[in-house]
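Input.
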Amino acid sequence: MNNQSNKQATFFSRCLRECGALLALSMPIIISQLATQGMNFVDTTMAGQASARDLAAIAVGGSLWLPVSLLLRGILMALTPMIAHHRGAGVSRGITHDLGQTGWIALICSALLIVYLTQAGQILVAMDVAPDIVPIASGYLMALAFGAPGIALFYTLNSFCEGMSNTRAPMIIAIIGLLLNIPINYVLIYGKLGMPEMGAVGCGWATSLVYWVMAGMMLLYVRTHHTYKQHVDTAEMHPSLSRMGEIFRLGLPIGINIFVCGSIFAVIALLIGKLGANNVAAHQIALNFSGLTYMIPMSLSFGITIRVGHTLGQGNIEEAKLRSLSGMILAVCCSAASASCILLFPHAIIGLYTNNPEVTQGAALLLGYAAIYQISDALQSSANGVLRGFKDTRIPMMLVTFAYWGVALPLGYTLGLTNIIVPAMGAAGFWIGLITGLTLAAMLLIGRLMAVMMKTRTTCTMTTQPITG
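Output.
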């Protein structure tokens, strides 16, 4: 009995130590992600104070912007493991070359983004979005098009710094960007300092301007850093189609995985757009705040990937299992705290966005659904992080795609906009679909993780090459 108690105490203490180490590793990432998401939070709250139509325009416009921005971010994230590999091997020229090739990829992607965003108004019309929302949302997206190259450059340099094991600089610059976004939003949304009152369109211009500033700060930092400036050598950055193709093939699966997770929310926002400005605004409040809380388990999942992958590279499967379990427990605890805050203070949260009584009533209901899926979201995110550590990415991507697009969206559409099962529930039906899909994704990914762990031998000799799946 004493031996059993000692084993349990040892296991518990090891879990606590691992949770502490994971938090220390992930904290700069968490702060960076919260700061970046905080810009969306500021846009939504400040636009909501202007009018329900402006808030709805942010929701609908963001539904077209968010998926492609996630896809872009994922593609450019390929630079991180490649830089880390070159750095470990001491190949300085490879760092410079791959930074340049990723820069060319970012330039091409930003050009495609500009074309997409300038034509987005036609997509909104085709989706039968409420006519009073379309012009504002189109203007918001046109403004974002101006910032597309700056956003792509910032993502590229951010990935470079992470590959060099530097998460502090991106974190500081992200915080500065958030602080700049507030006064610029204030001036452009409400028409201060002689500027015209632009509403939600002002949010788009503010975001573009802030990202250009952030990109400039990152570039200045890299060019003046005593170690990094040697890698900003244009002579070594001539385009190489073959190398660009290799980097793109590495980044595309990462981008698709992130895209699948984010796009389901965007499509739902577009479908809800048929229900009018108040319904869209209520949905946007619940989505924006739950997206803010999701930054914590998502950032932890990045840390879990690093911790688990490092241990597997040493061939220690038992330690990898401990780190996996500890990471998932920590993610669930954080999300349980988020869910409690949502359930205890819904009206305080909604009051940050709007005072419209109709929007408040609808948002209060949807926030209740958002609280329910916090735990499922934490489980699926952390399990995905563990699986990335095991270099298992293709099957998890297919499982998540099935859960979101094969179950959550069809069920949400059926419950929300049709009378097939129950009388049309509106936005609430889509959120029930989301809860179902996220729960299914968590179950499928945990099942996949158990299968992968069972197949992995104790004498695991996995290499430390970058994830290519």
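The chain has two domains: 14-26+276-457, 51-251.
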